[in-house]
Every structure is written in C-alpha cells, then in structure tokens.
Amino acid sequence: MEAEKVRQIFRLVSEKQISVEDATEIINNSGFTDLGFAKIDTERNKRTGVPEIIYGEGKTAEQIIGIVEAMLEKQNNILVTRVDSQKAKEVRKSLPQLHYDEVSEMLLWEKNPVAKTIGKIAIVTAGTSDLKIAEEAAVTAEAFGNSVVRIYDVGVAGIHRLFARIDEIRAAQVVIVIAGMEGALASVVGGLVSSPVIAVPTSVGYGTAFNGMAALLTMLNSCATGITVVNIDNGFGAGYSASKINHLAEAAK
Fold this sequence. Notes:
The protein is α/β, with parallel strands linked by helices and 253 residues long. The protein is 40% helix and 18% strand. The longest helix has 18 residues, at 235-252. One of its GO terms (biological process) is 'de novo' IMP biosynthetic process.
C-alpha cells in the first residue's frame, strides 16, 4: 500500500472517523482471497461496479462451493455460469439457496435483488436453437438489474416474424441479436434500429457453419453500423456489456 494512503488511514483513525480495527483491515487487505485453487477478486466491484462472476465450466462442484462461500463474505449476489445439471445438483446440496436455471445452465443467488431499470434490453434470436445462449444473456442482464424483453425465433428465413415485433425492439435502449447459421439477423436488425446492437454468433448450424465461425465472420463484416460483436456463444459477455450500456443511459436520465 502507498505511504500516502497509509497516512490518510492514520488521519481518519486520529479523527475518529474509522476504528483501529477497520484501519487494520484496510491496511491488510490484499485485494483478493486466496483459497489455494482460486484467488477471489474482492475489489472488482469497487473497480468496475460489478462483482466477480464465477465461470463454472472446468471447476468441480467442491471448488464452486468453496468459491461461493468465500464470496458471500464480501458480496450479496452470486452468479455462476456454464454449470451442467449434474454439477448444479451437487452444488445445491451444500448451497440450496442457489437457484438453477436449466436453460441457461446458470446458478444465481440474489440475496438482495437489484431494482430493475426503466430502460429495456431486447434480446432477439434467429431460432429456438439459440435459446440457451439467449437465456444466458437474459439471466445475466436481469441479475445486474436490467429489464429484459425476449423476442425469440424471428430469423431471416421468416423475416415477417421480425417485423411483427420491430416496435418493441426499437423501444429498447440496447439490442442483443443472437444467431447461428450465416448470422444475417444482426445486420438486418442493425439497419432497422437506432440503439446499440450487440451481436452474438452461436455454434448452431450445419457443417460449413464451422461451429459458429461463419456467423462470427458475417457479423464482423456487417455493413450495418453500430454493431459490436462478442465471441461465439458468449451470451454472458453480451448480457454484461448490454447492462453497462443500459445503466449509463439510465444514469443520464
């Protein structure tokens, strides 16, 4: 810790604005909790406005339980992504307070639910096959206090379905467009709305879709302006980014 910051802490103690115990905790705070198999970033919420999120894939149920229990000492709401149903079942034996969403494969514990925004995030999918990624984005955005509108199965193969919901899409502060196959839906929506569009390519599609590469390249090469593209199947990243944009718009009102 910088010497100047230590002096400030001593001054606060001398002025009785904080206790000696609080000062000791601040000085000894390394910014993370070391569990041996994981180092939990306890300062992320202060730096970024959003606490650390647990990526469940590749972690054992026991590791997830240990991380959640340690995080509960510092934060109220817990979000765990990419957890299959069997692993979720094992985790919930020790932490039944965690709600499991089977579609998005996410665990969520809202000890103190966040008030929902007035501005909405519209989540638009090309097909039902994109539902898992769409719900990952939706659950993420809702966990961060956003109002979400789901507009599913409106791909370009039946574009009249999109036009039937276009007013709802245009009313959103941010639009997340999720599509596999050739990924054309993001360009179509991008040319119809004034809001920022976050495009999510999915790994849905036949052989030459190359597990989402075709959709990714289409979205990156879109001629529609204002489109930002996240990684293949990254519903969480889209929901997180949309939340930040939506909250900026909310704060500006």
